[in-house]
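FIELD: query
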Amino acid sequence: MNIFKKREKVKVNVYMDENNNNNNDNNNNNNNRGNKNSNNNDFWNGLKGGGGSSNNNGNNPLKNPRNRLSLGIFIFVLLTFGIIMFDGMENAGVQPVSYTTFKQYVSSGQVTTVDIEANQEITFTTQSNQRMRTLIPYLDEDLLDELNSFGIIVSGSEQEISYLSLFLSIVPWIIFVGFMVILYRQANGMGTRAIGGLGKNLAKEYKPDENKTTFKDVAGQLEAKNELLEVVDFLKSPARFHKIGAKIPKGALLVGPPGTGKTLLAKAVAGEAGVSFLHTSGSDFVEMFVGMGASRVRDLFEQARKAAPCIIFIDELDAVGRARGAGLGGGHDEREQTLNQILVEMDGFDSVSNVIVMAATNRPDVLDQALLRPGRFDRQVVVDLPDIKEREAILEIHCKKVKLESDVDLYRIARATPGSSGADLANMINEAALFAAREKKETVSMSNIESARDKVMLGVAKKSKVMSLDDKTATAYHEAGHTLLHYYLNNVDPLHKVTIIPHGRALGLTISLPEKDAYTMTRSKLVDRIKITMGGYVAEEIVYGETTTGTSNDIQQATNIAKRMVTEFGMSSLGFINLGEEDEPLFLGREIAQHKNYSEATAKIIDDEMLKILDACLKETREILTTHRDQLDLLTEKLVEKETLDDSEIRELLGFESIENNLSLKD
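FIELD: result
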């Protein structure tokens, strides 16, 4: 628009210049008038949003909501001052006096006229033509007779309307109406969340040209990809399946721990198939208004039918798909109605509709069984934590946009991060890049990745926290007790590092990491793990003759391991039997209360077996730390000095054989 106007104006100027070549003298006055008119037109065009010379960009300031609000406030304030000034001008020249002064003027015969206004106010004129007014403080029945006795002209009038009072009485209504207008406009701007759109689904639709995610963007998860390839093939060429009489599953449920890439995998299926992707969450169906959840479900599936072929993806399905009747009071009626509508919609899908429903959850055990039956979510795809090869592939994807130093070894990083999910690895690489940026470096080094891993695993170190020397020494002895046991027990994970720098609520930490992914635990490993947790308790007992409250978490961990060994794992004299209690949270399970399934006599045997395991571990832990008290003192002294020690430094300090550390990322 601006370019067009400028070109048009140039043409007019050229035309005028040609006329001036012929009649310069005749058109001087016309040009002057034309300039004035154009200036005036530019002014008015500017107010209307036009592109005059004073506003070549065509930007109207009044189109900005903030400018309009400021202008409205300015006009309101100006109007208020005007009314106050006008109201004050009505009484200009009238001097207010007391009622006593008025009576004195009457008694002295100086009053000529009196105007009584609504039996409340008196305006009178003196013989010197001076106007005064006063208020009647009480009912004076003798006033009229007194005025007549002095021959004063008396008149009466109704009280005049005060424009200021009228305006002030209207102001609250103006504010209320303005507030309602603002709310209405905001509601209209909220789209599906407006009052008229509460029943509309909140799913975000990704068109095929918008979704570029494919299986190449999902590292690892080969088994999950193979399971979902059938869905991709069906969406690409459904006729091939229909011809042979095969029916593709209507729903696929992605199950796995948080951060393993379930949402990314579902998006990659849509990207591979080249179809639309409707993404929503289970919580989007939960609304304070009755019936809104079911209405949104109907609208979502109707939108999917129109956009077919497409994929509906419901994230966190357990938010709306929990077992009906679960929890205190028999469940949540509105949520159950929403679930019923999902069941009806999925059951009504035809195999030829080319609409696949996918969902993700990390709690498949709490889902309603009707969701998992054949014909609905009849295929469960497990998306598990990545192994070492998959972690390396995930790191390669996340490091594409990060500048790494030449010494960065992704396989080494993957080996040093067992048990990490894809989200954990992405967060670690991002934190490493932030560490490098703070150091004003252009590339990320292995030391940056080491610092990022510790931050993600342990939290931010509180290096500024001030501790007395006694507290620092006590914490060092406690952590040294945990640490020393790693070098005298055969079935424990290798030590990574020990620190007495507070992290979170812990005053110190001893960190060990597995060298490889572990899927099962033997009895000897569990027993040695109990001994490790007892190290701090025993060290305090040996050195100080008493223990501190800092051992509470260690005691809890040891007790839980011993209890599960007896009641769940069959690692006691009770033998092959499960006596575990179901202790899942109230609103996540199917039962309101869970009860133990054994007698009091059996409970006594369980307690005895737990004490037998704990006492044996405690005895052996005391023997190890008492025998190597000199190493305990030496390690404590070094910890107080340096605050953090890794495995290689401890081995050098205590004279242990140096081995290759797979867990350290430092050179």
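FIELD: remark
Residues 600-627 form the longest helix (28 residues).
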